[in-house]
Amino acid sequence: MWNEFLFPYILISSDRKMTVQVALQNMATMFWTDVPTMFASVLFTVLPLIAVYLVLQRQFIEGLSRGALKG
Fold this sequence. Notes:
Blueprint: H1 2-11, H2 20-27, H3 35-55, H4 57-68
């Protein structure tokens, strides 16, 4: 997955739309990091994924179980 980070990080300038990973990386500089804003951004990034998992948890576990059994 490094290609998903390095390509936009190197080729896309900071004034354009960017991926979530690049936006989070831009919050950390050499001399100063806005930690509360970074943590809030990570929370808002992960929260929809957790919500989808909680809604579809039964199907997710069922799919894992079916793939683990023979026949």
